[in-house]
Amino acid sequence: MRATASPTENNYVTLTVEVDDDELAAAIDTTAANLAQQVSIKGFRKGKAPRKLVETHIGGPAVLRSEAIRESLPDFYALAISDALIDPISQPILNILEGEDEGTLVFEAQIEVRPEIELSGHHDLRVTIPSPIVTDDEVEKQIQRILETDAELRDVDRPIVTGDVVVVDVVTEPLEGAEGTPIDVQDFSYTVGSGNLADGVDETILGLKAGETLDAVGRMPDNTYQTFHISLKQVKERLLPDLTDEWVEENTEYATADALRDGIVNQLRRMKLVEAQIARRDNVLKALGALVEAESAPQQLVDQEVQSRLQDLVNRLEQQGIAVEYFLEMTGQSPDQLVEQLREDSVRAVCIDLALRALAVAEDLAPSDDEIEEELAATAEALKIKPDVLKDNLAHNGRTPAFIAEVAKMKASKWLLANVTYVDDAGAVIDASLLDADQSEDDSAYGEDDE
Predict the structure, then answer these.
(1) What's the topology of domain 152-239?
(2) In what order do the strands lie in the sheet with 2-7?
(3) How far, in Å, CA of 139 to CA of 17, rounded?
(4) Where are the beta strands (DSSP E) in 366-443?
(5) Do the beta carbons of residue 129 and residue 279 sit within 8 Å?
(6) What's phi and psi for 251, nearest 5 deg?
(7) Residue 46: phi, psi to the nearest 5?
(8) Which of 179, 271, 385, 430 is the most buried if burial means most Cβ atoms within 10 Å?
(9) CB-side exposure of 417: number of CA atoms within 13 Å?
């Protein structure tokens, strides 16, 4: 079989395929054998009648040839796009040019493919991610939380500050004309600044003293607003124990205060590194995808992505025993709003795909034969099949070009991760080598103390 591809307009490719006589003969033999299993011919068990009788039964050799072409054309097409390395994004339009009745079979396929994007700006990408560096302030806050587990409360006669514990009586009433369930709580202990009472109330308590009252409007958990009448009965401050070796040994898993501090630093390092590494890939891909105009995303690919994401959502909801209607009700979405959100995400995903492919071209990252074979072996091992079987399956299903494209995209992703500039929320550049550390490692992954 020989396949020749030539580009046409509007991201279409015309693929002309010539099928060798022996390949078509094999297809005719297969069709004949299949038909022999299906037809009933007097005097013969199914599958045992001579081919000539089968041909006569179905209308002659011409009908058998026509049926064989009809059945095998999709297989010939799949092999042809694998051979020509064409990655379609929609179903092709197939037309037989020659050989329908006799001679060499020649057919043509009109194939829609992805647009080729000219990428620019990828060398100058600055990607914001959480900093993996542990600060002194973060360590001290964690130490304070640990000390608070053994804190004492002492009455104070001074204005309230954040962190104080106040004992209050709270009575609420809905705003005039509004709905809501009033509450009446006596002797309620509340940590100022925790935000657990109601949005907007903490700020108005600061600076008051025991014995005073306060009226404030706050938002309730159900998003309604009520007037809070608060009577401040007591104000207590937290007295933290001193951070001594004795206290640490008695109250923690560590033997000394220095060991506790080192342990906190290491835990925060691992946590912040994982957070940064997760954000790194997501944010890098979003930044790259933003270099591609949304209008460049083919509607066919967007629609396919929407359907895939919708089906995935339905499957996950079914696994959890949740009806789609209930999910929509709980999230406050209409079906159209859900689809629109999925469409926005799908356009972004398609733009990322186009950008990665364009990056592979721009940076000459086409995978070598050895790299493709290596990835084939790894994928086959994961699927618990032999590499040759996987290779044949990809070819016969027309998936060879898609597989090679995925390998190229993997190389593009690695290039991107290594070549963008990472900054924290304040705009300070982050040393990319910190992001490659293994979070399972101890201080050796970071060198000396970073503080």
Answers:
(1) Chitinase A; domain 3 (3.10.50)
(2) 2-7, 12-19, 105-112, 93-98
(3) 68
(4) 421-423
(5) yes
(6) -115, -5
(7) -60, 130
(8) 430
(9) 17
Tell how strand 165-174 and strand 184-191 pair up.
antiparallel
- Cβ proximity of 58 and 67 under 8 Å: yes
b/e map 92-129, b = 16+ CB within 10 Å: bebeeeebeeeeebbbbbebbbbbebebeebeebebeb
Q: Is the dihedral of CA 348, 349, 350, 352 positive or negative?
A: positive
Question: Token match 């999709």: residue?
Answer: 74
**What are the Cα distances from residue 113, in Å, to 91, 195, 302, 304?**
10, 54, 13, 14
Q: Return the CATH number of the domain spanning residue range 257-445.
A: 1.10.3120.10
User: Of the ranges 35-39, 320-324, 356-360, which one carries the lowest mean pLDDT score?
Assistant: 35-39
* pLDDT at site 343: 96
Q: Which CATH number fits domain 2-112: 3.40.50.150, 3.30.70.1050, 3.40.50.2300, 3.40.50.1860?
A: 3.30.70.1050
Task: State the greatest distance between any 2 C-alpha atoms of the chain, in Å, as a whole number.
Answer: 110
Amino acid type, 356 = L
Nearest to 145 by CA among 278, 233, 300, 268: 268
- Side chain identity, residue 261: R
Q: What is the CB-side half-sphere exposure of residue 117 using CA atoms within 13 A?
A: 27
| Residues in the chain, overall count | 451
Contact (Cβ atoms closer than 8 angstroms) between residue 186 and residue 209: no
Q: Which two three-digit tokens encode residue 354? A: 């186009």
